[in-house]
Every structure is written in C-alpha cells, then in structure tokens.
Amino acid sequence: MTSQVTFIGAGNMASAIFGGMIEGGYPAAAITATGRDPQSLDALASRYGIQTTSDNDVAVEHADVVVLAVKPQVMREVCHELRDSVQRQRPLIVSVAAGLSAETLDNWLGGNMAVIRCMPNTPSLVGQGAAGLYANARVSEEQKRLATSLLETVGLVEWVADEHLLEAVTAVSGSGPAYFFLIMEALEDAGKKLGLPADSARRLALQTAYGAASMARESEFEPAELRRRVTSPNGTTERAINSFEDDGLRQLFEHATQACATRARELADELSRD
C-alpha cells in the first residue's frame, strides 16, 4: 500500500523532493503539499498532479509521512499548530529544516513522535543531492527504509547514528556546493587573468569541475589516487598541486568546515531556545 506523504511547505526543496518522487514513479495522488500562496499551490497542482491545500490540519489528517519543509524560524509556530493533528495520526515526521534537533521537534509536536532529521543540499533541485539523515529511537526500520526510498529520488542518502554528526554533514555536503562554486569562480577568474576570454574561461572551468566529479563518482579509485594518476612527475599539474599544498589548501578546508560546523551548533542553540 502506497504511503500518503504530506509536505508542510512547498518551496524549492519540497518541490525538488516530491518532483523527484513523481519522476521516480511515486503516485502524485499520494502526495499533498501545503502553502500560503493559492496561486503557487495551483501551479504545483497543475504541474505535478499533487493535492494542495492551505490547511495544514487537513493535509495531515490521512498522512503516513509528514515532511516539515518550512524555514527554521517559523518551525515552532508550525509544529504547535500541527500538534493535535499529528498526535491523532502519528505519522513519521521528516524535517529538512537545518539546526533543529529531533528532541526539539518532538517536544514542539507534543512528544513520542518518530522523527527523522534530514540535511539535504541544493543540488537536490537537479536530482544530484547529497543528504545526511538521523532517526530518533522511535523510528522503525521500515520507516527508515521508506525515508531512504523517498529521498533517494533526488540524490545520495547517508544515515548517521549520532545526531551531532549532522553538523559534519552540514559542513561537508550541506554547505559544500558553495565551496565548489567558489572554486569554479576562482578557476574562471584565474583563466581570465591568464588571457582566456571570459566565456571560454567559464565554460572550461565548469566543464572541468563536472568532468572531474563524474570521473570520481564512476571510478574504482579514490580521489587521491585519481589525482596521483594525472600528476606527472615534474610536470605542469605537479607544479600547481605543490603550490596548493605549500599555500595550505588542506588546512583552509579544515578550518572552513570547522567554522561551518561550529556555526551549525550555534544556530541549533539559538533556534531551540524557549
């Protein structure tokens, strides 16, 4: 029997997930999304064939899974509004909001709920996401399998046993796309300074990033070995790699990801305060 899935919030991340679900064969009639803008909801219903409503309680009434996809700053209010409905229905709760712990969400929803936290990233919008998931003790193995199958429609799914590891997931994959965009930007700028036309520098930088990522995903070798294989002794690539190493590139990434994880903890503390 197909699970009824309700999305509270119908923004970019929610639409990426249910769009991926439908593309993967999930029946649109089993998906409901809520929002405040009737025109946006009508557009989603027309595009995807899903059910839409502005009434969260109605949307949750028959839901097996409720995906909380609203901004963290309004999550407390939304959870309090949903409390009576979810306590009656007892659905699996999946939150894609950053920073809010499973315990905090459970408390706001009235307690004793099966809660999964998901840290997705923006490439989910093009079906190439990477998400870290954590389940509290009330989530069954069947519910974990269901969450995996739903979220794999938009990319990679990795489960973590310790909720605090979601801070590391945030630092590596949650915020990671921005790091790679910065690298693409820097490589493009470097190419222009070496004399390449701007459009050529951009195309070469983007295609090189895409090609390297594709090669790394499809290869039997780890990235370190792939790097060694394209770095000829005393060649041009070795000169560039040595320059990166001498300038402390690895330490820069270590410091940046630590800063990101620290900020994730700070935000979690700020958001969960009463």
Automatic annotation (TrEMBL):
NADP(+) binds at I8, G9, A10, G11, N12, M13, A69, V70, K71, P72. One of its GO terms (cellular component) is cytoplasm. Gene3D superfamilies: NAD(P)-binding Rossmann-like Domain (3.40.50.720), ProC C-terminal domain-like (1.10.3730.10). Its EC number is 1.5.1.2. Residues 5-99 form the Pyrroline-5-carboxylate reductase catalytic N-terminal domain. Pfam families: F420_oxidored (PF03807), P5CR_dimer (PF14748). The keyword Glycosyltransferase does not apply. It is found in: Cytoplasm. One of its GO terms (molecular function) is pyrroline-5-carboxylate reductase activity. Pathway: Amino-acid biosynthesis; L-proline biosynthesis; L-proline from L-glutamate 5-semialdehyde: step 1/1. Keywords: Amino-acid biosynthesis, Cytoplasm, NADP, Oxidoreductase, Proline biosynthesis. Residues 163-267 form the Pyrroline-5-carboxylate reductase dimerisation domain. GO terms for biological process: L-proline biosynthetic process. HAMAP family: P5C_reductase. Belongs to the pyrroline-5-carboxylate reductase family. This is Pyrroline-5-carboxylate reductase. It comes from Chromohalobacter marismortui. The gene is proC.
